């Protein structure tokens, strides 16, 4: 993916613009990750409460778990790549760029979410 033209010309960006670009991008990505995962968990819990056909519920849970595992993996890679691409603004963004701790926390969160979806998939597959 190419870097946008306004990012290449760092002389036109002040610290406030760079910080806003970084925080807005990071916030949108994390917000999407957590809202979609939370929504999928909520939908599955609602389906489980009103389940009249257990087999179709288990099939739906397995399908949602696999889809969400893939989505979560893609989002973790996207957030990591976003942080890596933001290092091109290392001059004004030196204090805010993604470092080793931020990356480890990101991958830990991804691992926890992935483990939860793997658990859902294993329970659903074992019940089939």
Q: How would you describe this structure to a colleague?
A:
The protein is 77% helix and 0% strand. With 128 residues, the chain is mostly helical. The chain has one domain (14-127). The longest helix has 35 residues, at 15-49. The chain is elongated. The mean pLDDT is 83.
Number of helices: 4
Q: List segments where confidence is low: pLDDT < 50 over at least 5 consecutive residues.
A: none
Strand pairing plus helix content: what structural class?
A: mainly alpha
Radius of gyration, whole Å: 19 Å
SSE arrangement, N to C: HHHH
The helix fraction, in percent, is: over 70%
Cα-to-Cα separation, first versus last residue: 42 Å
- Nearest-integer average pLDDT: 83
Strand fraction: under 5%
Shape annotation: elongated
Number of strands: 0
How many domains make up the 3D coordinates? 1
The biggest beta sheet, please?
Answer: none
Spell out the blueprint of helices and strands.
Layout: H1 5-8, H2 15-49, H3 54-85, H4 100-127
Helix pairs in contact: 2-3, 3-4
């Amino acid at each position: 993916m190419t870097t946008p033209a306004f990012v290449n010309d760092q002389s036109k960006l002040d610290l406030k613009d760079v910080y806003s670009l970084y925080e807005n991008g990071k916030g949108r990505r994390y917000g999407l990750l957590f809202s979609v995962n939370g929504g999928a968990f909520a939908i599955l819990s609602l389906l489980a409460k009103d389940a009249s056909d257990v087999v179709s519920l288990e099939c739906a849970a397995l399908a949602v778990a696999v889809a969400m595992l893939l989505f979560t993996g893609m989002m973790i890679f996207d957030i990591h790549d976003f942080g890596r691409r933001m290092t091109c603004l290392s001059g004004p963004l030196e204090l805010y760029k993604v470092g080793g701790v931020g990356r480890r926390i990101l991958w830990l969160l991804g691992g926890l979410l992935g483990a939860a979806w793997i658990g859902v998939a294993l329970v659903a597959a074992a019940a089939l």
